[in-house]
Amino acid sequence: MNRFLLTSAFLLVAVPAAFAVEQAPPGWPQLPPKAPVSAVKLVEPHLHVNRAGKGAPRIALTFDACMGKTDPRILSTLIEQRIPATIFVTARWLRTNPDALAAFLAHPDLFELENHGQNHIPAVDIPTKVYGIAAAGSPQAVAQEVKGGADAMLAAGIPQPRWFRGATAKYSLSAIAEIRGMGYRIAGYSVNGDSGSLLPAKLVEKQYASARDGDVIISHINQPTHAAGEGVAASILALKAKGVQFVRLQDIPEQGDDDTTN
Ligand SMILES: [Zn+2]
């Protein structure tokens, strides 16, 4: 009986509320049909590099420099330990981090710099939100996000990027096809090292420790105040101690889901 009453009460409240949102008041122009957010199919592709097979496991470290600053704990560890890595930079980040950019460019043997977009807008060509961030929303806006990122890189003296990773690492399949048509491979990942730089250091270390031969780890190098960066720096040392062979995306063949790579 109680359950019945509760259900009825819910229906009585919920149905009129739904109509109030979807229907225009009498005399107003008809509202255009709106696709529900759940109808926008997004993918978060995996990426692996070819496994070494025998001997030391091969792992690709990738770092996103979305905006904001640079984490000196991670940058100095990479340089001092001579660890190769692939860094995805945005035009936004480049504008405010000239010193870190100089450090990357001073070590071309260690750092491959690739395209993370112009304004850190998800590369989705349909109007929607990803983690609360408004997506590009059209093919033209996706193209601008990709091209704007590359233009800023070239203007900063960085070689032409060959890889793109969009903000949030989620895409519509049509946006993937579009970006591929612009000549890029799209960088997914296979191990989420820091969950957007939000993990405590110990959990970051657990994520990194789970990496196996052929894995591509994603983390962030733009959050110097977060505890995650401490975990990233410690994890790099732990992988090195295990004898891991670090590779950059440009150095090794790979396999990506959803037609993101060749
Ligand atoms: Zn990012």
Keywords:
binds zinc ion; 8 helices; 12 strands; two-stranded antiparallel sheet; 35% helix; single chain; six-stranded parallel beta sheet; alpha/beta; 2 domains; TIM Barrel; 262 residues; globular
Overview of the molecule:
α2 (72-80) runs parallel beside α8 (228-241) and α7 runs parallel beside α8. Strands 2, 3, 4, 9, 10 and 11 form a 6-stranded parallel sheet that branches. A two-stranded antiparallel ribbon has the order 1-12. Strands 5-6 form a two-stranded antiparallel ribbon. It is an alpha/beta fold and 262 residues long. 44% of the residues are buried. The chain starts with a helix and ends in a 6-residue tail after the last strand. It contains 8 helices and 12 strands. The longest helix is centred in the N-terminal third of the chain and has 21 residues, at 2-22. β2, α2 (72-80) and β3 form a beta-alpha-beta unit. It folds into 2 domains: 2-38, no CATH class; 43-256, Alpha-Beta Barrel (TIM Barrel). Helices cover 35% and strands 16% of the residues. The structure holds zinc ion.
